[in-house]
Amino acid sequence: MSRFSPLEWPVLRQLRGADPLGRGSAVTSARTRATTPRTATADRVVRSICPYCAVGCGQRIFVKDDKVVQIEGDPDSPISRGRLCPKGAASEQLVNFPNRVTTVRYRAPHATDWQDLDLDTALDMIADRFLEARRAHWEDLDEKGHPLRRTMGIASLGGATIDNEENYLAKKLFTAAGAIQMENQARI
Amino acid sequence: MANADCIIVQGSNMAEAHPVGFQWVMEAKARGARIIHVDPRFTRTTANADKHVPIRAGSDVVLLGALINHVLTEELWFREYVQAFTNASTIIDERYQDPEDLDGLFSGFDPETGRYDPASWAYRTAQPADPSHAHDDASRGETAGAGGPPLEREPVQRDETLQDPRCVLQILRRHYARYTPEMVEEACGISREDFAYLARSIVENSGRERTTCFAYAVGWTQHTGGAQFIRAAAILQLLMGNMGRPGGGVMALRGHATIQGSTDIPTLFNLLPGYLPMPMAGTHDRFEDYVESIGTKTQKGFWADAETYAVNLLKAWWGDAATPENDWAFDYLPRLTGAHGTYQTMMAMLEGKVDGFFLLGQNPAVGSADGRLQRLAMSHLKWMVVRDFSMIESATWWKEGPEIESGELRTEDIGTEVFFLPAANHTEKAGSFTQTQRLVQWRHQAVPPPGDAVSELQFLVELGNRIRERLAGSTDPRDRPLLDLTWDYPIDEHGEPDPESVLREINGFHVSGPDAGRPLSSFAQMRPDGSTAGGCWIYAGVYADGVNQAARRRPGQEQDETAAEWAWAWPANRRILYNRASADADGRPWSERKKYVWWDAEQGRWTGRDVPDFPVTKEPHDEGDPEAGGAAGLSGSDAFIMQSDGRGWLFAPSGLVDGPLPTHYEPVESSIPNPLYDQQANPTRVSFRSDLAMNAPGVDGLGGAAEVYPYVFTTYRVTEHHTAGGMSRFLPYLSELQPELFCEVSPELAEIVGLEPYGWATIVSPRSAIEARVLVTRRMRPLPIAGRTVHQIGLPYHWARGSEAVVEGDSVNDLIGLNLDANTQIQNSKVTACAIRPGRRPRGPALAELVAEHQRRAGIDADTGDEKVTIPPPAQRRVHVPGEAPAPPTEDPTEEEDR
User: Fold this and answer.
1) Cβ of B351: how many Cβ atoms within 10 Å?
2) Which of A104, B124, B393, B597 is the most exposed place for a label (fewest CB within 10 A)?
């Protein structure tokens, strides 16, 4: 192994090589030399936008084996010019963080803990409850006889962190159902 | 911002909260611009500024009003700009009375309802107003879209000499006459030298050759008069000619990836896509009344086509079921009866009136004001659905929330069913975000979501499918809107709806005719006859030619500064709004240096470095068709094309519910008597009568709780966390960078209270008490105000109690009360009265006892501070108002005492 060669003594490396001041290649370990950035080994790079504040920095998402392995700033973005703040730079963890929950959980009334639930079952239960709440708090007319055609039994909060297309469908569905109490962070 | 010669950051810590955007401030500085930070705290923004101007939180209108007064008195305003493009010369109704006449109220206030009738703020017209066109809900912000209530198209009266005492400019002079540098010193704690520096910086960097820019964030919006803070900056910028020009403007720095998009395509109670209002029961029963209330066909500018925008939306949602015979299914829309904002909804939830609640990426247990009230409200729900990445506190409050710890709630007693559904994140789905400058940017999907995680798109489509299946065959008319809904989005093999198909619907398309099926290329192609459909008129063009324009990524380095081929900005890919004002009345650039959009006489069209925000072939001296509404009615100098008079509004005759001009009111929990008027606080503010939301006004005679809650705190963000922490406190890197809640206090306050650096402090408000580590720092500076010293405390609000996140800490929003701006229904988070003492807070039931003991000593209850009008009889008035002798007031303000 070359690291046992006397020629690999750091001082000699420093004097022999292209790094006489010992600030770069002369002082790297074999491990460092063998390391390649995750960006170099990625299968593909996908263009995206940072999910945190509203500056809208460009992101490049590096993917290997269908896993996100790194996220970097997009130098092509005329807004961010390749930069990311600590949150944007940490956003790979937003994909792979250890506390992320990826299964449905359900807390029954008065229960002291979560239980697992199948996604389809959960959606069926939510749809049933949606219609029940809609019915239970339906208002056809106000006290003066003006049409209301609404339900006050259902509310929703959120939207500033999801997509325009998602907000569009949320507003469309809730409005068609008569559910007017729909809000997001823009109010706060 | 890079093109500005002076940047005033006020109501924002831009370097901390928008660090990458702040590079453009630094770019401007490198090009020679002056940067001034007006803020209660010395922050990272201040460290990069040329000058820090410390200000008492909540006093911004005094400062901005004094700048307005200064430029008017010293005749430093940009006369040619103001005469050409603003309503300075417009004459206001004879009945208008100013707060200078009424000791802090405008004419038209009704103490019974706590609302204004804005009729007396209107432009004077030749004929008296036609009562059949009166909009009796104009006093309520929730009824108007972006344009505010419309103006009738009657010729307004103007005095181009600007001498008429009833013209806007003269009213403005009188309104702000007492907003002086001395008043600034007294009310804001800003020295006369600092004021002079600020004024000089703006004046020297405005005009033909130079521009000044303002930047703000929630440091302006989160006040009981927040909308008026922004209005005050807009008035100053109009007077100085800094609107519609490069390096000018009033920049809103918004805090979430698509908080702009979720306002444009709103998940908000009062709006439909494209700033169309939700209809109001009684006022908008008929489609005709609804569209007339947004914009009349005879008014100038682009709101005259409100009917077209509304028809296209209804057609997009209800397809073939939307016909001319049924007014495009207008009756399918549910109706409002007032404000139904998130705080009103939480109050209804507390009373058991709401059964189900969806949280789509929001964490109100931590992020909304009065956290205890939020959590207790959720405990009254039958069920809730939390869609997020991890177990945020709004999903776990029933198990380990602060009320479980204190014993106030017992898990076994809580009947709320909770569904936690894991969400796909930004890399796991495709879609668009709209950032803070209206730029719609597309994200491509990088990987599939893990496990049960799905996008909101898939969740909503599947929920909608299930609801519609269950109602199939229903003959109940209330189910028609769901059954007739266009809801047939293409689904891929993973069950994911095609987000581009939704973007195409938002953009709009031809329904019939030779181009049937083709996407629209601009909202100008929309028709009110059902031949086109489009879900959000201002986004028309984002899918022009069937191409996703939001996904365009021509590198910035290959483009000019406008970078028009990077993504797509609404409307029409225009990067600076109202850019007609970047040229003079004759259509010539104000200067070579600030050249942006101008009239090309040879080509007979507007041209320049951006998409002109003006009818492109209308000559600068075109007088406009006096008979026609819409774009044809605009004159060649009506640069503010969305306004019904084509002018920038120094004075807002409609659209605001708390007055046509920004006026200084004290925050509800201020301990300083309003130095300008006997009217202490904004009389239109929204508050809630609840033991969970008590207030502690600090002025004698108005509650006098100043001795118990002698200090004020203001909340803010740090770079390493994101709002309520759902996307940051669960990540190891970010948690390590900012592990713990702290409070910033000045050395002087630390000395008074006995706080040790890095020790603990307990902060008590009328709502709750929290503990935080103590950071003693000169970044906080005591301010001399009205003969006393105001100590301000800084508190970042990202932490919460619970075991799921990497780091935990008390939740600062638990301290904040519910006092809302009536225009926006946004709460004051920036000025709250508190006590502070050394040591940790008590645990268990002793916490509630501590809070109650303070409430008792202060003598406050659920009603304290709810008096809307605080003007005493004339003999007892504290403030001498030297206004001109008014005509006998329509309402005697002395009768409003004690209300």
Assistant:
1) 9
2) B124
| Protein fold of B342-430+448-478 | Rossmann fold (3.40.50)
Spell out which residues of chain B touch residue A110, defining contact as CB-CB under 8 Å. Answer: 411-415
On the question of pLDDT at B893 being above 50, the answer is no
Helix ranges (H only) for A74-118 are 86-89, 91-96
Choose among B664, B754, B704, B567: nearest CA to B223: B664
Distance between alpha carbon B534 and the CA centroid of its chain, in Å? Answer: 26
Which one of A54, A109, A142 has the shortest CB-CB distance to B282? A142
Chain B hits for A69, CB-CB cut-off 8 Å, are none
**What is A38-96's CATH superfamily?**
ADC-like domains (2.20.25.90)
Percentage above 90 pLDDT, chain B = 90
Cα B259 to Cα B254: distance, rounded to the nearest angstrom: 7
B172, B173, B178, B181 alpha-carbon torsion, rounded to 10°: 100
Is B686-858 a domain of CATH 1.10.3720.10?
A: no
Residues in chain B closer than 8 A to A81 (CB atoms): 23, 556
The token pair that represents A37 in the structure block? 């950035």
**CB proximity list for B374: less than 8 A, separation 6 or greater:** B346, B364, B365, B368
Q: pLDDT tens digits, residue range B417-445? A: 999 999 999 999 999 999 999 999 999 99
Interface probe for A, chosen from B286, B287, B362, B474 (most Cβ of A below 10 Å), is: B362
Contact A177 B266 (CB under 8 A): no
Domain residue ranges of chain B, discontinuous segments joined by +: 6-85+178-252, 342-430+448-478, 686-858
Please tell me the pTM assigned to this model.
0.94
A29: left (phi over 0), alpha (psi -120 to 50) or beta: beta
Query: Which residues in chain A have Cβ-Cβ distances shorter than 8 Å to B391?
Result: 99, 101
**What CATH number has the domain spanning B6-85+178-252?**
3.40.228.10
Strands (E), B720-829: 742-745, 760-764, 769-776, 783-785, 788-790, 792-796, 819-820
Give the residues across from B772 on adjacent strands: B761
The residue of chain A nearest to residue B357, with distances taken between CA atoms, is A155
- The shortest C-alpha distance from B821 to chain A (Å) reads 10
Strands (E), A9-132: 44-49, 58-64, 67-73, 105-107, 115-116
Nearest-by-CA chain A residue for B564: A78
Compute the distance between CA of residue A59 and CA of residue A77 in angstroms, rounded to an integer: 9
Q: Is the pLDDT of residue A87 over 70?
A: yes
- In angstroms, the CA A92 to CA B374 distance is 31
CATH 2.20.25.90 spans which residues of chain A? 38-96
* Residue bearing tokens 């003598």: B859
* Helix (H), strand (E), coil (C) string for B80-115: HHHHHHECCCEEECCCCCCHHHHCCCCCCEECCCCE
Which 3 state secondary structure label does DSSP give A15? Answer: helix
ipTM: 0.95
Please state at what angle helix B287-294 crosses helix B306-318, rounded to 10 degrees.
Answer: 130
